[in-house]
């Protein structure tokens, strides 16, 4: 069955200081309800929107990163529908039906190994407020509670073509989007609710269903999986899949019917008369491009060509900006890119728990900084500890935040390089393990057993290479 | 021709609760008004651009945050700073 | 004692600043006058008692030798759709019965900075929708020349309060003639500035792309003095033009074109008075001739399309959740609550909102809204070429004489048709003024409308002032 998935991704421009059309701050999280509002974002009679210049620049950067065309003139439209969290009962957004006036159109983005999804458009718009219920449940409440602190927060909506069929690809694509907006510095994706995603799903034999209210990127994959299964079941039972809008129930992890709201044909879009058409001009894109931060793809290329990383390792690093930044800070302290990258990509990541991995919050739960990994890599490359030990040390470092050298000293893991100390240990093992010694004389591979015993006796601190040399020498001597 | 059904849908989109009598009255009046607006159909079009105000990007508001001093909500139906609203069934 | 309430702007400022009389004496006379004539006229929704305190502050400043502004002591009545901080602003609607704005409109702020005193808020058609000031929650305003006739609208209270000598000057708003129509019907001067010349910040929107705040006064000089204070760029309104102009009153020969279409469609007595006005211009050395603008026939359908479309969206915000009148939301389902609250809009407002929703409906946008915007472009083009030949265009402000109250309330379309001559200036953005031109046999006033090219306010003021001086029509009704 042919499954088609399209995405409508919302990113708050948390990198801005003020809202899209007024001077209220963007830092609304954790504030007293309705304390981050003014006459304009509350839609009081007589107020007028004042577009934030930098929001246009940020949205343009996102458009360019997604290979979109940015028009020379942009406009804002009113999308008319009633909802208690919408102060004006219309949303200021962008619209392309009467000419291209949204900030970006016709782009594409490569993701995963060699997949591509087309971007239909990028638009700048305002976030609504939030509705909550006192008892946590609508059924038990006599009224809803509304907080307008979020109303007017600048949002960029990225609309893809229905180019996905596998929920896994949805996840990979969203990871790439996350990395891009993080690299551009326009959106802190770790903030609660800063990135959201509506998904459209259709299966062979059914119509397109839109799922709204998907609160995070990790939920998007779940919503898609649920919806595909639901629709396929319906089709297989010959139940009609109608075109509709459903809601993602975050608590029960299912999609639900949603009623009593306007549909697309009811929105009565028309140009916002209080915001003139904004002339960006011919040179706008040309002047913006050089000032844009390095994007993930360019960074990956640099990691490979300038730092000699493998494409796979470079890919893992750039998928998460925090990780790539961590890597670059670490090699400033200890310039051995391959060694450092391997420690980060294979070892450090293995300590990240499932929840943080889902939220893309890779390093939050670990008490580790670039200085730790730099020191550990140096110790390994200078043979102060062996790799096995180094991994054990890292295990402790991420829990306690102690420097690796401190952990090593505490566990007396410092390698014994002094051959006379090792020779004493070899002597003791030969005395204690006489039958093994006899074996080893017949079969050289059995020498490893003796080495193990030596390492045990030295609590793993002996340099294994030196110890093995001494064991072999002694085996030959006593023959 | 403006139908009663159309006016009914439009009054829902405008959130007006109209009686059947009001619906009939509005339908007749709006039919008359719309027929008058249809005069636009006879306008020679000649490929004219619709009128549009313009502004340069450089003249837009700078990204600076300030707090509005003073009470902005005009309702007394409040709870812990929230605004009370009807339930979203 | 002298009848101070008859004075014009210059005389008030002169009298107050030279301490010939105090601002407090002056405001007391006006408040007494209001008390005496309001039962007949009903021009005010709110009369401000704190205006006395404002007058005392002006007097104290003058006594102390402090600097006072160019309108020191001038008493202004403000249309009730212009926000006044701390003073109820209802738009003559039940929907804003309890609404007290937390901010001042830019024009109010500028007037007060200039030393003007706000005496109260004037009656109007609900949200500016009407041409008679009969559609008000606070009852109809009556024409001071005959209290059985309508004063015109929607700024009927602002015009009647000037005509009835209840203030020095007033502010109205003009979306399709709402300043000029009542000015004509009440025989006062009413000025609609070029779109973008006066800030709309704080003007409760009816149709954003058409409307401007404008002054009404007993003389051209009075409205010019107010324009000098309120006109000019405002960073709070993105549609205002750069600069702060200042106007004087000059006499110079101008080229005057009489618009044939306006005269032909008018009442016979109106036509006659307007045609005679050309002789007045000729007497002062102006070149006068008849001219024609064929595209004005599309003005009215274009106007009603755009005005209702914008209104349908602008008025969506009145859902009574954040502000409005007392209606407890507890226990309601949201759509029911919205519909119940919004049924308190007046009939005319509902009619226009539904009409506006109709013309914006999907499938109709191209047929109505887009075409109406194209009609504006054609009108702008045609007028532009006429203004190469003429400095000003003239015609009747209203095609008919003030009519009886209740005469047109039940026939919306005939009511709309009276706006036929005024909407042209709103659609094209050009400035227009109505000056008293004479009286019909029944003693009812007739106004002359003068229009000039965009931002040519000075030309308009010169023309109006020359006409006023020469025609000698200005007088006040007996009350
Ligand atoms: Zn705000």
CATH architecture of chain C: Alpha-Beta Complex
Major β-sheet profile of chain B: 2 strands, antiparallel
Give the terminus-to-terminus CA distance of chain B: 35 Å
CATH class of chain C, anyone? Answer: Alpha Beta
Structural notes for this entry:
The complex is a heterotrimer of chains A (479), B (89) and C (479). Chain A is elongated, with a radius of gyration of 30 Å. Chain A has helices at 53-65, 167-184, 217-236, 284-288, 296-305, 311-318, 321-333, 337-348, 354-358, 370-381, 387-400, 404-410, 419-432, 434-442, 447-457, 464-477; strands spanning 4-12, 73-74, 77-80, 90-93, 104-111, 115-126, 130-132, 144-147, 154-160, 195-202, 209-212, 244-249, 254-257, 270-271, 277-279. Chain A is built from 16 helices and 15 strands. In chain B, strands 2-3 form a two-stranded antiparallel ribbon. Chain B has helices spanning 4-13, 20-37, and strands at residues 54-56, 78-79, 82-85. The mean pLDDT of chain B is 93. With 479 residues, chain C is an alpha/beta fold. Helices cover 39% and strands 13% of the residues of chain C. Chain C contains 16 helices and eleven strands. Chain C has helices spanning 9-17, 23-41, 51-63, 106-113, 156-163, 180-186, 220-230, 260-264, 268-283, 299-314, 334-342, 347-360, 366-389, 412-417, 423-428, 457-471; strands at residues 44-47, 75-79, 117-122, 169-174, 189-192, 212-217, 255-259, 287-291, 392-396, 432-439, 445-452. Chain C has an eleven-stranded mixed β-sheet, with helices on both faces. In chain C, helix 9 (268-283) crosses helix 16 and helix 10 (299-314) packs across helix 12. The longest helix of chain C has 24 residues, at 366-389. The model of chain C has no long low-confidence stretch (mean pLDDT 96). At the A-B interface, helix 1, strand 8 and strand 15 of A face strand 1 and strand 3 of B. Strand 15 of chain A pairs parallel with strand 1 of chain B, so a sheet runs across the interface. The complex binds zinc ion (ZN).
In short:
The complex is a heterotrimer of chains A (479), B (89) and C (479). Chain A has 479 residues and is of the alpha+beta class.
How would you summarize the topology of this molecule?
The complex is a heterotrimer of chains A (479), B (89) and C (479).
Chain A: E1 4-12, H1 53-65, E2 73-74, E3 77-80, E4 90-93, E5 104-111, E6 115-126, E7 130-132, E8 144-147, E9 154-160, H2 167-184, E10 195-202, E11 209-212, H3 217-236, E12 244-249, E13 254-257, E14 270-271, E15 277-279, H4 284-288, H5 296-305, H6 311-318, H7 321-333, H8 337-348, H9 354-358, H10 370-381, H11 387-400, H12 404-410, H13 419-432, H14 434-442, H15 447-457, H16 464-477
Parallel strand pairs in A: 11-12
Antiparallel strand pairs in A: 1-9, 1-10, 2-15, 3-4, 3-14, 5-6, 6-9, 7-8, 10-11, 12-13
Helix pairs in contact in A: 2-3, 5-6, 6-7, 6-8, 7-8, 7-10, 8-10, 10-11, 13-15, 13-16, 15-16
Chain B: H1 4-13, H2 20-37, E1 54-56, E2 78-79, E3 82-85
Antiparallel strand pairs in B: 2-3
Chain C: H1 9-17, H2 23-41, E1 44-47, H3 51-63, E2 75-79, H4 106-113, E3 117-122, H5 156-163, E4 169-174, H6 180-186, E5 189-192, E6 212-217, H7 220-230, E7 255-259, H8 260-264, H9 268-283, E8 287-291, H10 299-314, H11 334-342, H12 347-360, H13 366-389, E9 392-396, H14 412-417, H15 423-428, E10 432-439, E11 445-452, H16 457-471
Parallel strand pairs in C: 2-3, 2-4, 7-8, 7-9
Antiparallel strand pairs in C: 1-3, 4-6, 5-6, 5-10, 9-11, 10-11
Helix pairs in contact in C: 2-3, 5-6, 9-16, 10-12, 10-13
Residues 19, 22, 24, 37-38, 40-41, 152 of chain A line the site of zinc ion (ZN).
């Amino acid at each position: 069955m042919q499954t088609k998935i399209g995405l409508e991704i919302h990113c708050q421009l948390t990198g801005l200081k003020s809202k899209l059309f007024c001077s209220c701050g963007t830092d609304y999280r954790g504030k007293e309800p309705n304390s981050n509002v003014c006459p304009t974002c509350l839609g009081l009679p007589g107020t007028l929107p004042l577009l934030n210049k930098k929001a246009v620049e940020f949205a343009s950067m996102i458009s360019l990163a997604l290979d979109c065309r940015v028009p020379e003139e942009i406009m804002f439209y009113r999308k008319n529908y009633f909802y208690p969290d919408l102060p004006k009962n219309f949303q200021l957004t962008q619209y392309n039906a009467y000419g291209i006036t949204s900030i970006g159109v016709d782009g594409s983005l490569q993701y995963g190994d060699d997949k591509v999804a087309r971007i239909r458009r990028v638009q700048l718009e305002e976030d609504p407020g939030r509705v909550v219920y006192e008892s946590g449940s609508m059924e038990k409440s006599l009224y809803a509670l509304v907080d307008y602190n979020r109303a007017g927060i600048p949002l960029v909506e990225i609309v893809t073509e229905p180019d996905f069929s596998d929920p896994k690809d949805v996840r990979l694509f969203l990871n790439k989007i996350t990395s891009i907006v993080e690299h551009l510095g326009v959106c802190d994706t770790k903030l609660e609710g800063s990135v959201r995603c509506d998904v459209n799903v259709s299966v062979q034999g059914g119509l397109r269903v839109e799922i709204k209210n998907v609160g995070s990127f990790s939920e998007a994959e779940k919503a898609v999986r649920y919806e595909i299964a639901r629709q396929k079941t319906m089709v297989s039972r010959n139940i009609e899949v109608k075109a509709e809008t459903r809601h993602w129930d975050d608590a029960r992890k299912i999609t639900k019917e949603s009623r009593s709201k306007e549909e697309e044909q009811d929105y009565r879009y028309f140009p916002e008369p209080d915001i003139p058409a904004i002339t960006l001009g011919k040179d706008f894109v040309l002047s913006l491009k050089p000032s844009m931060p390095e994007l993930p793809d360019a960074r990956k290329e640099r990691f490979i060509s300038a730092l000699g990383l493998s494409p796979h390792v470079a890919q893992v690093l750039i998928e998460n900006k925090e990780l790539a930044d961590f890597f670059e800070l670490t090699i400033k302290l200890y310039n051995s890119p391959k060694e450092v990258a391997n420690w980060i990509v294979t070892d450090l990541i293995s300590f990240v728990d499932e929840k943080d991995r889902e939220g893309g919050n890779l390093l939050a739960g670990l008490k580790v900084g670039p200085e730790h990994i730099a020191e550990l890599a140096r110790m390994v490359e200078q043979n102060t500890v062996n790799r096995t030990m180094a991994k054990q040390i890292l295990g402790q470092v991420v829990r306690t935040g102690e420097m690796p050298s401190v952990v090593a000293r505490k566990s007396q893991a410092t390698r014994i390089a002094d051959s006379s100390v090792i020779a004493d240990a070899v002597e003791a093992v030969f005395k204690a393990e006489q039958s093994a010694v006899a074996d080893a004389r017949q079969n050289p591979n059995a020498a490893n057993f003796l080495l193990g015993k030596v390492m045990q006796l030295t609590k793993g601190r002996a340099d294994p290479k030196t110890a093995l040399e001494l064991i072999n020498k002694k085996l030959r001597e006593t023959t | 021709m403006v139908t009663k059904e159309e006016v009914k849908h439009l009054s829902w989109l405008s959130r007006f609760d109209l009686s059947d009598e009001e619906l009939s009255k509005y339908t007749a009046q709006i039919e008359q008004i719309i027929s008058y607006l249809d005069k636009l159909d006879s306008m020679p079009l000649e490929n004219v651009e619709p009128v549009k105000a313009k502004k340069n990007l450089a003249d837009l508001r700078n990204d600076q945050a300030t707090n509005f001093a003073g009470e902005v909500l005009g309702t007394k139906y409040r709870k812990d700073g929230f605004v009370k609203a009807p339930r979203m069934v | 004692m002298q009848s101070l309430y008859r004075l014009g702007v210059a005389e008030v400022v002169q009298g107050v600043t030279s301490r010939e009389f105090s601002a407090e004496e002056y405001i007391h006379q006006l408040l007494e006058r209001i008390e005496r004539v309001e039962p007949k006229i009903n021009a005010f929704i709110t009369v401000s008692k704190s205006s006395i305190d404002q007058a005392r502050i002006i007097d104290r400043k003058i006594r102390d030798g402090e600097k006072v502004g160019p309108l020191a002591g001038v008493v202004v009545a403000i249309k009730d759709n212009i926000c006044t901080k701390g003073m109820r602003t209802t738009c003559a609607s039940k929907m804003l019965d309890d609404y007290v704005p937390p901010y001042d409109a830019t024009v109010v702020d500028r007037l007060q900075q200039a030393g003007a005193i706000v005496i109260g808020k004037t009656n109007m058609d609900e949200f500016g929708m009407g041409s008679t000031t009969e559609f008000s929650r606070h009852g109809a305003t009556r024409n001071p020349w005959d209290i059985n006739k309508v004063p015109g609208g929607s700024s009927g209270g602002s015009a009647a309060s000037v005509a009835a000598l209840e203030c020095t000057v007033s502010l109205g708003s003009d979306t399709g003639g709402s300043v000029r129509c009542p000015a004509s019907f009440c025989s006062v001067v009413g000025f609609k500035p070029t779109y973008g010349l006066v800030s709309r910040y704080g003007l409760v929107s009816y149709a954003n792309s058409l409307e401007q705040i404008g002054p009404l006064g007993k003389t051209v000089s009075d409205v010019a003095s107010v324009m000098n204070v309120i006109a000019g760029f405002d960073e709070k309104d993105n549609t205002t033009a750069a600069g702060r102009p200042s106007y004087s009153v000059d006499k110079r020969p101008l080229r005057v074109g009489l618009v044939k279409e306006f005269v032909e469609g008018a009442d016979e007595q109106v036509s006659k008075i307007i045609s005679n006005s050309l002789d007045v211009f000729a007497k002062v050395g102006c070149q006068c001739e008849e001219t024609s603008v064929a595209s004005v026939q599309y003005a009215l359908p274009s106007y009603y399309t755009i005005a209702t479309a914008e209104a349908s969206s602008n008025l969506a915000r009145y859902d009574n959740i954040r502000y409005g009148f007392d209606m407890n939301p507890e226990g309601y389902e949201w759509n029911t609550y919205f519909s119940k609250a919004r049924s308190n809009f007046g009939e005319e407002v509902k009619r226009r909102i539904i009409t506006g929703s109709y013309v914006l409906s999907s499938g109709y946008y191209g047929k109505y809204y887009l075409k109406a915007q194209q009609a504006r472009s054609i009108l702008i083009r045609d007028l532009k070429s006429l203004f190469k030949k003429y400095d000003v265009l003239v015609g009747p402000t209203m095609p008919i004489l003030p009519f009886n109250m209740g005469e047109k309330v039940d026939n919306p379309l005939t009511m709309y048709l009276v706006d036929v001559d005024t909407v042209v200036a709103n659609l094209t953005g050009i400035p227009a003024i109505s000056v008293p031109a004479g009286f019909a046999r029944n003693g009812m006033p007739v106004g002359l409308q003068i229009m000039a090219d965009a931002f040519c306010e000075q030309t308009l003021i010169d023309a109006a002032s020359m006409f006023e001086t020469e025609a000698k029509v200005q007088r006040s009704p007996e009350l």
